[in-house]
Design goal:
The protein is α/β, with parallel strands linked by helices and about 150 residues long. It has six helices and five strands, in the order βααβαααβαββ. The protein has a five-stranded mixed β-sheet with strand order 1-2-3-4-5. β4 and β5 form a beta hairpin.
């Protein structure tokens, strides 16, 4: 018997500009850098999953994980370009159109942003995150997802 593969994850770097492009609506969603980056990630995941399935493995899920939402999502909200609700609506629309079912928005690394994590997670069951708890000389990440 071959091992079951629970998840194949593609790591991706997002910038605040990726979100600004979507929010400013200068281009159709399919022409925004965020759409292109996520579409390319999904295509890579599909190729990897297909190759593994062809080799006889069961692949249960594919996932996209990105850098901390504090670096790409919050700048757009803090500058008043958009609200959290509107920004998440656009992101979820893109995830749905590409077929991404598991999306990690990156870790929360600053204590003052912890209250945002549940507000983000309730927007979609596709979205997960983690919170970094700093202890003396060690870091502990705790993962969270909408249940």
């Amino acid at each position: 018997h071959k091992m079951k593969i629970r998840a194949i994850t593609c790591g991706l770097f997002l910038s605040a500009q990726d979100i600004f492009d979507v929010i400013e609506k200068k281009l159709p969603l399919q022409q925004c850098s965020l759409f292109e980056k996520l579409k390319n990630a999904m295509e890579q995941l599909e190729r990897a999953a297909s190759a593994l399935r062809a080799a006889g493995y069961e692949v249960q899920t594919t996932r996209v994980a990105v850098n901390s939402f504090e670096t790409w999502l919050l700048p757009c909200i803090s500058k008043g370009q958009s609200t959290l609700d509107d920004t998440m609506k656009h992101l979820i629309l893109i995830l749905d159109s590409i077929g991404i079912n598991f999306f990690n928005i990156g870790p929360c690394t600053r204590q003052e942003n912890i209250p945002l994590v549940p507000k983000i997670l309730v927007k979609s069951t596709k979205i997960s995150s983690s919170i970094l708890f700093k202890k003396e000389k060690q870091n502990v990440f705790v993962d969270f997802a909408h249940c």
